[in-house]
Design brief:
This protein has seven helices and no strands. It has 138 residues and is mainly α.
């Protein structure tokens, strides 16, 4: 009941400020202030404030939040374990076995075996940067 009274008082004060703003010929600002002032009153009228107050002071609701938090932690920890196990690598038979394709699907391209690419010298990549630094005397 205290929350409803406070929300009603805030709405009344906001509407008073909106009236003063409208009196000063700032109608757009007055309309915006009135809109914000009506939100707490609307929340009281819909029962959202009473529901929130009942939830905030209910031990059963807090126990429910605790159970949801525990479920969330368990879910995240099992996902982390799955990722860690998947990172260890698969057995060799599983890696070399071809995967079955759906009927009518195009064949997967084969990997081309050959020489691995060699890295280009780092000097070629930084020649522009070196020229700029030399230009500025660095």
């Amino acid at each position: 009941m205290l929350a409803e009274t406070i929300c009603s008082a805030v709405s009344a004060a906001g509407l008073g400020i909106a009236a003063i703003t409208a009196y000063r010929k700032r109608f757009l600002s007055a309309a915006r202030i009135a809109a914000y002032a009506l939100v707490p009153l609307g929340l009281v009228m819909t029962g959202a404030v009473a529901w929130l107050a009942d939830t905030a002071f209910s031990p059963m609701a807090w126990a429910g939040f605790g159970v949801l938090g525990l479920a969330w932690v368990l879910f995240l920890s099992t996902r982390a374990v799955e990722r860690r196990r998947a990172g260890r690598g698969r057995p060799a038979a599983e890696e070399t076995a071809p995967r079955a394709a759906a009927p009518g699907a195009p064949a997967a391209p084969r990997a081309v075996t050959g020489k691995p690419r060699t890295a280009e010298p780092a000097g070629d990549d930084f020649s522009d940067i070196e020229a700029i630094l030399k230009k500025h005397g660095i």
